Here is the input.
Amino acid sequence: MSAIIENNQLPFSAKFLQFYKDRTLLAILLSLFAVMFIYGIFFTENYLTITNFKAIIRDAALYGIMAIGLTFVTLSGNFFLLSLKETASICGVTFAMGMATGFGSPDLAGNFLVSLLAALAVGVVSGVIQGYFVGMGGNPIVVTLGGAGILYGIGAWWSDNLVINFTRPHDAEWLGTGSFLGLPSITWSFILIAIAAEIVLRHTNFGRKVYLVGANKAAGKATGHENFSMAIIVFTICSVCCAFVAVAFVAQMDSAQSNYFSAEFGSSGDMTILVIATVMVGGNSIMGGYGSTLRTSLGAIFIAMVDNMMVLQGFNSGPRIVGVGLMIVFSIIVFGLFAKGSRAQE
Amino acid sequence: MDNFLKKITKDVDLSFAILLSFCVYVFFAINIEVFFSHNISFAILERFAVLGLVGLALTICIIAGEIDLSIGSNAALCAVIVVKLTDPLGAPLAMIIGLSVSTLIGATQGFVIAFIRIRAIVITVGTLMLLRGVALLIAEEKTVMLTDFRVPDFITTKVLMYFSPASLTVILIFICVGIFMRYTKYGREIYAIGGARKEALTAGIPLRRPMIIAFALSGFCAGFAGTVIGLKSGTAQGLGLQYLLLAGTVAAFVGGVSILGGKGGVLGAAIGALTVNFLNTGLVFYALQVHFVQLFTSVLLVIVIVFQTMSRVFDSRQARKSLLATIDERKTSLLEKKRSALGR
Here is the structure.
């Protein structure tokens, strides 16, 4: 009680400091942003152009959307999925199958809506099954590691490990390469999904429940919000986000293969690790209950910025992966040191 | 007989592992004629040299209550270093340098985890990417190759019909680590911080020492696996060896470690790795594509996880029941005491 009264009587400057103390992690992220930005302006050519910023946000959009889905999982205290790229690849294969052959019936070939729904359905099924096992008490890391192998195996089996092509003009062009008001549609989806996720997490009953279950499983259970249903829902959300990214990516490439997301996605190696890294660079607590999708979006843009700067400076893939990896380790250590002893850690 | 049953029920997961590995072996031995032969046994032991080490690395980490996701990258880095240095320095020196680098990396990870009190999955995701980048950087984004492929012949020559120097060394490592984990103070500390960390810390066990030892051991094992792979094939890639994580995890979990930590052992890791080896070697005879091997390995993992989860749920229910029973007993005895007191 006395603490509250004292806090009300504090002078304005102290309040201001308190405000920033509460938001240390966000402040660190923003200052890192500023440092990178200023460095980019002075030492990189062609950095400060609108085209380049569009490219950065476009890069960020692909793994940003997946990372926003993953944020729900992380916030609810279920660590993360190791099957992100495999989910995306099987959904991409499904979509391409639908666009190319219509799942066996020629009438449906090239039907965008059916293919999209099929891909999303695959995402929902894989999310529900993995969420079920996790909700039953399995460890998320191990369950999704097994799930990753199975999903990849099924995807490769179904597509015979071949590249599935479909020809250009098709109904999905607007999603893959189209643009609206000067921004590509994938960027628009990123922005819309980020806003929607933020609203859901902050202003709906469900969003509060995610935070509650993540912050304190026992309290959640005592108040009737078990991790079982929560795990299923958040895993489904995450898998659907992966499916959406896969559809957009396949629509852009006009083809799909079971290891499209495996080998070297973009420049930073493994897609799954990149997405997990995005969530962590944003400063979300891996133990759950602390963080937001806004941070994740900022993390995605930050990683894209660093990568973009290194591309413009003419680095090969090796140094670029080292750069992004160093950034991840650095931010994890900094966030860990600042969160030491606070509620956000454990 | 009674003794035997007690032994089985005492460690359900280990018995299940032995049963599973036996089933897999018998299945392939019946279906494939040559499976039960000297050469196949030699081949299985050769594969065991790699997979067993990775399984051991993960087992130690999981016993400590953490999981090391960076072993694939660590192995790849060590393989690249060893293969690259073998030409100028010779194989033994290159091996020493590579192994000390990966042990050092593991120890650093353990130190950071214990110092910041962060979860290992968090930091090892970062190092997974970082080490992969470093390996690419050292390999200059190419496949590193030996110029003289006869150099590493010494690790593949047959000894005593079934063994090669590589598999003999690995078995020696297994025995040493097993003794270390079971009979020394440092090994018991790893079990303690995994099984009940809060209690262990309160009892005065330092967090830093066992964590550093566990991760250094895991780094060493991963590095050794990378060395064996690199020297045997004579090539190494910066982006390779990521499949080791899945294989190692399956080996560790089949071997009966619990993700909650503090349970499992070296013997389990060996059995788990052998099971995965039987499966992989058997599938070779069916001439299946790589993704099928991955599929079946994952199915094995899921079976084991389901079994473990079920047995855990069963155990907790059983414990609850016995607790309720004792409470009932006490209540009735108290009531009787009261009654008898009132009666007097």
Summary: The beta strands of chain B are 144-145, 235-236. Residues 2 and 15 of chain B are 16 Å apart (CA to CA). The first strand of chain B starts at residue 144 and ends at 145.
